[in-house]
Write a structure and sequence with these properties.
heterodimer, A: mainly beta, 10 strands, globular, B: mainly beta, four-stranded antiparallel sheet, 0% helix
Chain lengths: 111, 118
């Protein structure tokens, strides 16, 4: 079964850059698009990256996504960290049976 | 402006049924894959089911045979029929808009709380 693994938590200071990894297992992460979602406490998720590296309208270019086939992983990079970026972040993709898969989520603390 | 307005949640006893609805506006609903995602209290996001434009459906193993996704393109509405509900189905359920060829892309509904308890 295709699975996505994320670090449980990361922390960084305001103004710095942080990268959250999402490692695939049981299949190639490059086979289907990867999305990244941000979820603040008590709120619905919002999309920050879709189709590996595309930003929806309104998402600042401080957010970027990438795929590394050699390590079978995806990454979300947030530069110029702001306190408002503090949230849970989830990577997501689909397996070759079109069944959805989420990573376990990463809690980003901006301190 | 894209909007996904969910409704139909509530408290239901184990073994009971519920139907969730998600009314879409601001985009051509019939052209896009639609998906249900849920989040149990204090837990992460879990993909539940997706439905493609011609009606092809996929389900998580945990809900197969009990939950049924459907869509009415004439009403721009996505549904989730939930039968034989269990305590572990307690969660906030989100409807989400996908792309033209895959299930999750750019917009989410506000969430619908479903509580399964006696």
């Amino acid at each position: 079964n295709f699975m996505l693994t994320q670090p449980h938590s990361v922390s960084e200071s305001p103004g710095k850059t942080v990268t959250i990894s999402c490692t695939g297992s049981g299949g190639s992460i490059a086979s289907n698009y990867v999305q990244w979602f941000q979820q603040r406490p008590g709120s619905a998720p919002t999309t920050v990256i879709y189709e590996d590296n595309q930003r929806p309208s309104g998402v600042p270019d401080r957010f970027s996504g990438s795929i590394d086939s050699s390590s079978n992983s995806a990454s979300l990079t947030i530069s110029g960290l702001k306190t408002e970026d503090e949230a849970d972040y989830y990577c997501q993709s689909f397996d070759n049976n079109n069944e959805g898969v989420f990573g376990g989520g990463t809690k980003l603390t901006v301190l | 402006e894209v909007q996904l307005l969910g409704s139909g949640g509530g408290l239901v006893q184990p073994g009971g049924s519920l139907r969730l609805s998600c009314e879409a506006s601001g985009f051509s609903f019939s052209d896009y894959v639609m998906t249900w995602v849920r989040q149990a209290p204090g837990k992460g996001l879990e993909w539940v089911s997706s439905i493609r434009v011609p009606g092809t459906t996929t389900y998580a193993d945990s809900v197969k045979g009990r939950l049924t996704i459907s869509r009415d393109n004439s009403k721009n509405t996505l549904y989730l029929q939930m039968n034989s509900l269990r305590a572990e189905d307690t969660a906030v359920y989100y409807c989400a808009k996908g792309g033209r060829s895959y299930g999750l892309k750019d917009f989410w509904g506000q969430g619908i709380l479903v509580t399964v308890s006696s």
